[in-house]
């Protein structure tokens, strides 16, 4: 019999994604993975949601979160991404970001990870099929396109709309609010289409990945359709994720993080 040392996980930010992931880890859904520490803005609020915090699970500052964790899962507002990313990478840990659009703005982190012996592992998050897109990228990809449809509440407040004084209030018909590249989408919608950034990193990069965003009052789910044409395959896939308590974020995101963590310790892993 061998007994492995548990994989120690830290979570930065306990909002819609972080709290769901923390609850599942505390429930012991993955044998060999423990929640070791969290970084939060308001410890009292966090303890009200999860009374187990502060005892066996430590509160840490964002810069100290990686001190006693092997993996740090970033579930923060985009503006706070870099601080925890740098602290985790500089300690040579595995960094699992959710605010993936910020990776496009901070490409130096990839070189930094190489220098420090760290790894950055982007979970599939609210999307699907990144394994197939990566396989396509081993050959020649001709085109990648993503069409996102969200209920207007899941898009309100995005910088792109605010800068153009676009209001989605009272919208009755689907309205295309953005048509551009994944890089432009990441800047204009940093908390709404991290999935486009992830897709671009798996495939042909942020400048060749096309993105349309629709505010659609006729849908109740956060819906993403990706279409890829390559020398080896053509694929078209759609995910319809039920919005979580944060209307911008689908309920599929936290389970995707759990699946990614499970893949780090399981004897059998299906899908690349
Ligand atoms: N890759 C993907 O597929 C997806 C990525 N995302 C992205 O993931 C990230 C997390 O999403 P989500 O959970 O929905 O976001 P939420 O807004 O629900 O949660 C963010 C959390 O961060 C906390 N926070 C704020 N300031 C600090 C601080 N200084 N230190 C520690 N914690 C802090 C907030 O606390 P408080 O509420 O108390 O202020 C809140 O609990 C976002 O960037 C989102 O855009 C989301 C969906 C899909
Ligand atoms: O949950 C979703 O539909 C996607 C999302 O918010 C994001 O990629 O930032």
From TrEMBL:
Binding site for NAD(+): 126, 194
Pathway: Cofactor biosynthesis; NAD(+) biosynthesis; iminoaspartate from L-aspartate (dehydrogenase route): step 1/1
Reaction catalysed by this enzyme: L-aspartate + NADP(+) + H2O = oxaloacetate + NH4(+) + NADPH + H(+); L-aspartate + NAD(+) + H2O = oxaloacetate + NH4(+) + NADH + H(+)
Keywords (A to Z) from UniProt: NAD, NADP, Oxidoreductase, Pyridine nucleotide biosynthesis
Gene Ontology BP, a term: NAD+ biosynthetic process
Membrane-spanning ranges: none
Domain Aspartate/homoserine dehydrogenase NAD-binding: 13-123
Pfam families (UniProt xref): Asp_DH_C, NAD_binding_3
Domain Aspartate dehydrogenase: 172-258
GO MF entry, a single one: NADP binding
EC number per UniProt: 1.4.1.21
Domain of life: Bacteria
Key word Heme present: no
Residues at the catalytic site: 224
Family named by the database record: Belongs to the L-aspartate dehydrogenase family.
Additional notes on this entry: The iminoaspartate product is unstable in aqueous solution and can decompose to oxaloacetate and ammonia.
Protein function: Specifically catalyzes the NAD or NADP-dependent dehydrogenation of L-aspartate to iminoaspartate.
Name of the protein in question: L-aspartate dehydrogenase
Organism in which the protein naturally occurs: Pseudolabrys taiwanensis
The encoding gene: nadX
